[in-house]
Amino acid sequence: MSPGQAERAQADQAAAPRAAADRDAVERHLGQAFGALAGRPGPGAGPGAAGPGPIRAGSALTGPRGLELFDAQLASRHLDLAARWLRAQGAGYYTIGSSGHEGNAGVAAALRITDPALLHYRSGAFYLARCQQASPPRDGVRDVLLGLVAAADEPIAGGRHKVFGHRQLHIIPQTSTIASHLPRALGLAFALDRAARLGRPAPWPADAIVAASLGDASVNHSTAAGAINTAAYCAYQHLPLPLLMVIEDNGLGISVRTPPGWVRAAARSVPGVGYFHANGSDLAAVYDAALAASAWVRERRSPAFLHLAMVRFGGHAGSDVESSYRGPAAIAADLAADPLLGTARLLVAAGLLTPAGVTARYEESRARILGLAAEMAGSRRLATAAQVMAPLAPHHPEQVRAGACLAAGPARRDEAFAGRLPESAGGLTLAQSINAALADALAARPGLLVFGEDVARKGGVYGVTRGLAERFGAVRVFDTLLDEQSILGLALGAGLAGLLPVPEIQYLAYLHNAADQIRGEAATLSFFSQGQFRNPLLLRLASLAYQEGFGGHFHNDNALASLRDIPGLIVACPARPDDAAAMLRTCLAAADADARVCVFLEPIALYHTRDLHRAGDGGWLAPYDPPGLWPAGNVPVGSARGYGNGRDLTIITFGNGLRMSLRVAARLATSGIGCRVLDLRWIAPLPAEDILREATVTGRVLVADETRRSGGVSEAVITTLVDAGFTGTIARVNSEDSFIPLGDAAQAVLLSEAAIESRARSLLPH
Ligand SMILES: Cc1ncc(C[n+]2csc(CCOP(=O)(O)OP(=O)(O)O)c2C)c(N)n1
Questions:
Q1: Largest CA distance in the chain
Q2: Pocket test for ligand 1, best of 95, 228, 254 (most atoms within 8 A of CB)
Q3: Whose CA is nearest to atom 8 of ligand 1?
Q4: Helix residue ranges, H only, 111-259
Q5: Could you tell me whether strands 570-572 and 622-623 are parallel, antiparallel, or unpaired per DSSP bridges?
Q6: What is the residue-wise DSSP string for 356-379?
Q7: What per-residue confidence (pLDDT) applies to 36?
């Protein structure tokens, strides 16, 4: 046990008696309240009530369905108790429960099993109710218990996290970052209709709706606020967006009270988004409101809120002592609103259960679940890094190679390029080459979408997407609103729906305010679902510096550290036009074949560069390969490109550094110094073999790195060499650990040709 774990275990232990007392109070109250139901059969009671009639006059919930849902609610409650028991045994690892939120079983019942759901972590009853809808019905209790003990056989995350998710139940597992699933949910709702419009096969029927649930405190998160705003923005323009946002409002975010009435006021003020409300402790009311809300969303293809008033029992999680921040009266008031009691009342009033029958069912559920929990406690866990990492980066190089050669037929290409094929256009710039490669990809892959701020009408700030919207239509190439989180959310949803999204973020600096959508969402989905859900995507990012005095820091960002450490992410950085087209095709193929998340860093300063050594030499232009040459020009993921065969010095670089290094190498050659220059092309995974081979030839390495000294790419290159046992000379030149200032002062902090040259000379014998 690590010191941190020991501390935590101590804190857990210290809190355990008080947390257990809070929990026992809930059970005691429930037991008494079940008993007090005696002799209170209501007006609907009688033998007929067990038929398919309503559980209560005016409700669409039938008695038999109410009974089934009660079982889901009971099981969810006992799973919470089992979670704490397993934790106490040292066999379980997760105690955030669903107690008090069991009304969400009614939401599941009102939806179709084929409505994709992205659930709040208090969705035990929803999950179990959806299991009842499966054919044959599933034993969801086992799934949840396997999750609690982090069992390798748990069906969705395979022991990597405790999540609610299942492929056949159409439940997409969520991370722990509250509200981070809302942009994806929004994107999925958008993509369902978009896929249908494009005639693309999707995993969900065209009339499905997306359900996403969240807590009341989560509503205030900027991620939720952004997604809600985007939903309203779409609804305002009558863009189809069938998204049901279920707010499970227990009035608390861990210990912080949500101001009474706030969620209602906030939700009702969102233009174009429907608002439905129910008491979450009244199963029939939840079911009826969920039916109405889902019908509204389904028929109008418009977003809506379903706001459910809930209570929360047992604190936020197992070690949380609620009585330390809430008064006894507030806690006691919640007990009366126990949803289990609410459903028991309904069932007794309908004559479907006697009070003794309620208690018996409760105890039967307890016995079954505790018995199963004891059985699961010894489940097989993940034990090795290879087991844990298996779903991280699927790798089918042959399929990717084949996919990278996928081209439309000659007639379709002719039409797509309006008769002006790029291979006949002579030397192209980086921007023109990317534009042509995108057009080819749009022509060859009917599910591919290109979108972002200004990409359609304007054709991108730098003209990289110019003409694509006209040629491929607004359904596939479109402008979005100005919100990077929503742009990435659209991509996450589109990938999930079977499309191939190519979003653009206008500048690297603006990735950072939305980075969690890549880091916490896109990159983790395969990991937490063992590849059962996929979000292939290619994110294009106008990147890096050297915009000749223009723009200052935010248009010249050279920080890649936040991308470099994301497991499984592919980060490409083409410097030359010919590489860019081939690498774009490889990334799309990797996204398609292996569901990889790819980031494509496009050096802005090279977009329109034409020359290399002298004005007019056209050394930075390259012809565009026709499809027949794509197999020969294939660029596999993680393969570098070498220039020159000098034996004195190896310069390892990428991006703008490549052009600078090639110019430096030419100057050094006139002094009789022979260089070879290696363009990494891929920042992740790094071309480790190429690095070592080229370094070994000269025994002398200079890394020319335009990113910062701290966290920059050169750190990884040098570590690669050291790890491989390289014993030659290693040096590096970098940009400073600074933000980029406006104007010519930028040159004072950016890597320069002069710095590369002087360091190179210093490494050689004089
Ligand atoms: C982005 C983020 N910040 C903080 C947390 C830590 N955290 C976990 S749950 C939670 C409270 C959420 O409250 P609410 O949305 O009301 O849901 P509830 O737990 O009450 O059901 C917090 C702050 C987190 N998971 N994610």
A1: 103
A2: 254
A3: 178
A4: 124-133, 140-148, 182-197, 222-236
A5: unpaired
A6: HHHHHHHHHHHHHHHHHHHHHTT-
A7: 85
DSSP 634: -
Q: How far apart are CA 436 and CA 427, in angstroms?
A: 12
Residue 737 CA to residue 732 CA, distance in Å, equals 14
Calculate Rg over the CA atoms of the chain: 30
Atom of ligand 1 nearest to the CA of 258: 16
578 touches 621 (CB < 8 A): no
- Count Cβ atoms within 10 A of the Cβ of residue 5 and give its class: 0-12 exposed, 13-18 middle, 19 or more buried: exposed
250 Cβ inside 6 Å of ligand 1: yes
Q: Residue 545's pLDDT is what?
A: 94
Atom of ligand 1 nearest to the CA of 96: 19
Ligand 1 pocket, residue 222 CB under 6 Å: no
Residue 613 annotated among the catalytic residues of the structure: no
How do strand 210-215 and strand 171-172 relate by DSSP bridges?
unpaired
In this structure, how many other beta carbons lie within 10 angstroms of the beta carbon of residue 269?
A: 10
What letter represents residue 46's amino acid? G
Phi, psi of 684 (to 5 degrees): -150, 125
- Predicted TM-score of the model (pTM): 0.95
The two beta strands, 570-572 and 682-684, are antiparallel
The segments of the chain whose pLDDT lies below 70 read: 1-22, 38-51, 549
Q: Whose CA is nearest to atom 13 of ligand 1?
A: 253
User: Is the distance from the beta carbon of residue 104 to the nearest atom of ligand 1 less than 6 Å?
Assistant: no
Q: Please indicate whether residue 476, judged by its CB atom, sits closer than 6 Å to ligand 1.
A: no
Q: What is the DSSP letter of 672?
A: T
Chain centroid to CA 258: 27
Query: Quick one: tokens of 149?
Result: 């003990």
| The two three-digit tokens of residue 745, written as one number | 């002062």
Tokens of 561: 């550290």
pLDDT value at residue 46: 45
Distance separating alpha carbons of residues 723 and 51, to the nearest angstrom: 72
Separation of CA 528 and ligand 1 centre (Å): 19
Q: Which two tokens stand for residue 212?
A: 């996403």
Q: Whose CA is nearest to atom 26 of ligand 1?
A: 177
Question: How confident is the model at residue 162, as a pLDDT?
Answer: 96
Per residue, the 3-state secondary structure of 274-301, as one string, reads EEEEEECCCHHHHHHHHHHHHHHHHHHC
Whether ligand 1 lies within 6 angstroms of the CB of 178 is answered as yes
How much is the pLDDT for 18? 63
- φ, ψ (nearest 5 deg) of residue 599: -115, 130
Chain position carrying tokens 């105890």: 363
Element (H, E) at 42: none
Tokens of 644: 């020159």
Q: Residue 48's pLDDT is what?
A: 44
Cα 480 to Cα 477: distance, rounded to the nearest angstrom? 10
Give me the residue label for tokens 């000294």: 709
Ligand 1 centre from 249 Cα, in Å?
12
Compute the distance between CA of residue 479 and CA of residue 729 in angstroms, rounded to an integer.
50
On whether the CB atoms of residues 247 and 275 are closer than 8 A, the answer is no
* Angle, helices 713-723/688-698, rounded to nearest 10 degrees: 70
Q: 């966290």: which residue's tokens?
A: 711
Token pair 């990113």: residue: 707
Contact 216 CB / ligand 1 (< 6 Å): yes
Q: CA-CA distance, 655 to 37, in Å (whole number)?
A: 73
Characterize the bridge pairing of strands 622-623 and 427-428.
antiparallel
CB of 215 within 6 A of ligand 1: the answer is yes
Which residue among the candidates 555, 608, 613, 766 is catalytic per the annotation?
A: 555
Please report the pLDDT score of residue 151 as a whole number: 98
CB contact at 8 A, 250 and 216? yes
The whole-number pLDDT of residue 207 equals 94
Pairing of strands 210-215, 243-249: parallel
